[in-house]
Amino acid sequence: MREDKIIELIESNPIVIKNIENPSDEMKIMAIKKNGIMIRYIRDPTKEMNEMAIKSNSRSIEFIENPTYEMKKHAVSELWNTLEFIEDPCDELIKLGIKQKGYAIKYAENPSDLLQKLAIEKDYDSIKYIEEPSEKMQLLAISKNYDALRYIKHATLNAEILAICENEAAIKFIENIDENKKILFIKHNALVMKYIVNDIQRDVVELAFKEVLSKENITEKYVRDFINCDSINEKYGNISMDKMIFIYRYGSKACKRIAVDEKLNMM
């Protein structure tokens, strides 16, 4: 078949290059221009062909032997997950990937604190690709979204508390919670009671609430949550009296002011 006819075939369907013995440079270039991935079927491509392939399709880097730094940089800047095909990518390439998706951190071996921070700030759940993250990184991820706790295998107590403060549902991601930890969580977020309605004796629960509600620096949120949480109720046996009466007896002045305001808002 004449070369011009073959080139026409390649132009309409570049995979044709795969079945051509000893293709000319013009045929190779046509195939690469149409789809850079075709570089995989070309023996001993020139540097120019490799560069052309990368520009045509960043994923072609998978099939380029010993790509230059510029080729790597172009590929990663276009598609972060092409890092998969780059051996021992440097920090600058990882940063390029992280700019698109925090998950790029998974291609870094022993990533620096800076890379970890950049990844978590981009996507909080990138922490799942960081082995044994420090408490600092745990807290950063959780501050972005409490859901990050589900991806941390060995969360510190401070990380757990922050997650609970952000959202009581975080308790679902914490295993082997003993009574002391449940009490601690109640002291940080009254809404935790939704998940441990009858787990703790009433006098212990009340003691925890008394401790928190008696403080002058108590937050508005805690008081309002305490009042509005249906799971804190005499009918469940976790409190011995009406919650407003409880606040009247044991709450600080600040607590009582917030409670009165909340009740007025509910009218």
Question: Could you describe the largest sheet, including whether it forms a barrel?
Answer: none
Beta-strand percentage? under 5%
**What integer value in Å does the Rg equal?**
30 Å
Helical/strand content category: mainly alpha
Number of continuous helical runs: 13
Number of β-strand runs: 0
Assembly level: single chain
Estimated helix fraction: 40-55%
- Weakly predicted, low-confidence segments: none
Order of helices and strands: HHHHHHHHHHHHH
Gross morphology: rod-shaped
Number of domains: 3
Distance between the termini: 89 Å
Q: Taking all residues together, what is the mean pLDDT? A: 96
Protein architecture, described:
With 267 residues, the chain is mainly α. The protein has 3 domains: 1-81, no CATH class; 88-175; 197-267, no CATH class. The protein is built from 13 helices and no strands. The longest helix has 14 residues, at 253-266. The model has no long low-confidence stretch (mean pLDDT 96).
Q: What is the fold's blueprint, element by element?
A:
Elements: H1 3-12, H2 25-34, H3 47-56, H4 69-78, H5 91-100, H6 113-122, H7 135-144, H8 157-166, H9 179-188, H10 202-213, H11 220-228, H12 243-250, H13 253-266
Jot down its keywords.
267 residues, 3 domains, mainly alpha, 13 helices
